[in-house]
Amino acid sequence: MAEYFEMGHHTFYVWLSYGVSFALFFGLAFFCFDGRAKAKTTTEKRIRRLLKQKRASK
Amino acid sequence: MANTKWTWFHRFGSPKWLYDFAERYNGPLFGVGCALMLGACFWGLFIAPPDYQQGDSFRIIYIHVPTAILAQSCYMMMAAAALVGLVWRMKISDYFIACAAPIGAVMTFLALFTGAVWGKPTWGTWWVWDARLTSMLLLLFLYFGVIALRSSIQSADNRARASYVLVLVGVINIPIIKYSVDWWNTLHQPATFTLTEKPAMPAEMWLPLLIMVIGIYCFFTALVLVRMQAEIVQRELKTRWVHKLLNIEGERSNG
User: Fold this and answer.
1) CA-to-CA separations, A6 to A9, A45, B119, B157, in angstroms, rounded
2) Closest chain A C-alpha to B5 CA, distance in angstroms
3) Contact between B248 and A51 (Cβ < 8 Å)
4) DSSP string, B154-197
5) Is residue B218 within 8 angstroms of chain A, CB to CB?
6) Which of A1, A47, A48 is the best residue to mutate to test the B interface, defined by the most B CB atoms within 10 Å of its own CB?
7) How confident is the model at residue B230 (pLDDT cuts 50, 70, 90)?
8) Residue B51 backbone dihedrals phi, psi, to 5 degrees
């Protein structure tokens, strides 16, 4: 089993590539989904603030 | 007749329609993309045979080639969006460029990074100022340029127009990347996949690569749709449907 992970003499190069790539894929996915949730929350707050200002000015 | 023919295209111009479309498809696309990518990587790492010359270091191909293909096609999609934005003035084009550019930049960085890591055991060096590598680095700078330009302009209209022009000027780099290995004597090998020829490697080596390419496209599409949903909600905050979506319809009618 261990020889599968050794990748010949290229353990460092192969696993470094896959490790960095999957870390970035994961980070990118988190950044996108979290960004959407945050965008909804901030927009909701912004709309409520705008409506409050509108009501106050009336 | 002409009207019905173009209805599907016009629908993409509606932020509400696109938001609902994204809501429906981003989950399944993300799931399929992740499953295909994980499956292809497992196949490529543990089942595909080692290369007779490069040994196991060739397995980096399953990350390097899909990210490089996606980096270039993402820029092409941005260029198509820029053209649509300039000609038809669809605001969705601007949203697409805003959402796709950071993902394209990450893919270009990964293509360069994995290429450098693969280059060390294969060529004996991490980097050479080879035509392919240099033009890919230029692509990364183009993505950075689009992101920086967009964040430096306040007016939405000016920002959109400036990024359309920059994206369209930069598209000249794509054929240079593609044909650099044919036009110049480079250290980089020619294309692994072509549309007209059968791959030189055996099926057990190219099938996981093909699956990885399909998976990464699904992953990319899902993430762009998610980012576009965020962009649409922020930019369409004055519309009634966004108010309804965020459950503030009642307060709006009261106010």
Assistant:
1) 7, 52, 19, 54
2) 33
3) yes
4) -SHHHHHHHHHHHHHHHTTHHHHHHHHHHHS--SS---S--SSS
5) no
6) A47
7) very high
8) -70, 145
Taking the C-alpha atoms of residue A35 and residue B231, their distance in angstroms, rounded to an integer, is 9
Rounded distance between C-alpha atoms, residue B209 and residue A44, angstroms? 43
For residue range A15-42, what is the model confidence (pLDDT) as tens digits?
Answer: 999 999 999 999 999 999 999 999 999 9
Closest CA to B157 of B94, B107, B109: B94
Q: Which amino acid is at B239?
A: T
Contact check, Cβ <8 Å, A14/B60: yes
Q: What is the ipTM of this complex?
A: 0.90
Model pTM score: 0.91
Q: Residue B52 CB: number of other CB atoms within 10 A? A: 7
